[in-house]
Amino acid sequence: MTIKVTDLASQVEDLYPKLVELRRHFHSFPELSFSERMTSEKILLELKALDAFEIESGVGGHGIIATLNMGEGPIIGLRADMDALPIQEQSKESFTSRHPGVMHACGHDAHMAILLGTAKLLAEAAHSEFLQGTVKLIFQPAEEDCDEKGDTGAVKMLNSGKLERLDRVLALHMCPWRETGSIQIHDGPSMANNDNFELAINGSGGHAGYPQHVTDPVWISTFILQALYSLNSRKVNPLDVGTLSVGEIHAGHSNNVIPHTVNIKGTMRSYTSEVRELLVQELKQTAQIVTTMGGSFELDIQKGEPALVNHPEINQVIRKAAEGLRIVEEPFGMGSEDFSHMTAKYPGALFFLGCGLDPERSLHHPEFDIDERAMVHGVTIFMKSIQHLLWKGE
Fold this sequence. Notes:
Number of helices: 10
Mean pLDDT: 95
CATH class of the largest domain: Alpha Beta
CATH superfamily of the largest domain: Zn peptidases
CATH architecture of the largest domain: 3-Layer(aba) Sandwich
Distance between the termini: 11 Å
Shape: elongated
Order of helices and strands: HHEEEHEHEEEEEHEEEHHEEHEHEH
Structural class: alpha/beta
Strand order of the largest sheet: 1-2-4-3-5-16-6-15
Number of domains: 2
């Protein structure tokens, strides 16, 4: 099928200065999860100026849904996340973060700029004779964090009732390890289930010079750590994807006092529900070692995002839309993405958009930055995907 496009390449190229302006604005004023008030206000201002969308704000927190109805047909969702990270930026750029300790180090600033650029082109194509259906632009808060219930922004938006029907849903993520002009894509499980844990090992502390009178939780923890790390190599099938990592260990306040408690925090990542459950059960069994050594424990496991499962049919649309770019077929790794909640409910896919400047300055790095030219490709892929999905023929 040949899709008639009225010089889309030229339209997107003309849009490039606006994409840069938007991205740099968001980058200068980053806001943490659940606090995206100024970000939301800026997005609303830009959308209202287009005078083409039905706009709902305050969805799932500071989320926004902008709907463009072009007649009966499929309902397509395009999602961009809005929040930044608690990182102190190390940059000399004029648009560096003006909020100390907060930084767009994961590309969400570019995601929003790309979706707003897509909005502008959609507004111009609102009365196209070739497109039929509805597009919902989903600006989602709180991808990077969850609330006290464990809910991220995607969950909150889905629970709001404002996204009750989507026939397809798409998203992208900036990819600093791929060069501009390329995308990374993968069918099926592509990012990991994400479960965090906190294990408190309790003993009976006391004077470090009299260890025979105490139950030393630090000593016990050395056995626990060995057992935890053995789960990766001895319990998970080498042909499966699954890993457990410890990120925090806290114990004591003095060199001559054996503490009462050692706190261990970590994460478990997997691609399948079977490996996910295996790691949980093995962690629970490993914790029992504490009691055999005379201590006690408390174990808290927080279930996070499910694995991101990309629908092959939607990926095929993205491949067609990315024609002319380099396409790398490969999973995205063991990171997690709460867009997975949306693809668990609706057929959807997320692709990684090459934007690399320096592979050393990767995601969540204090010097993270992107090649802004990549945003042109992001808008183009979104627009061509919409054309493929809503094309009504001659």
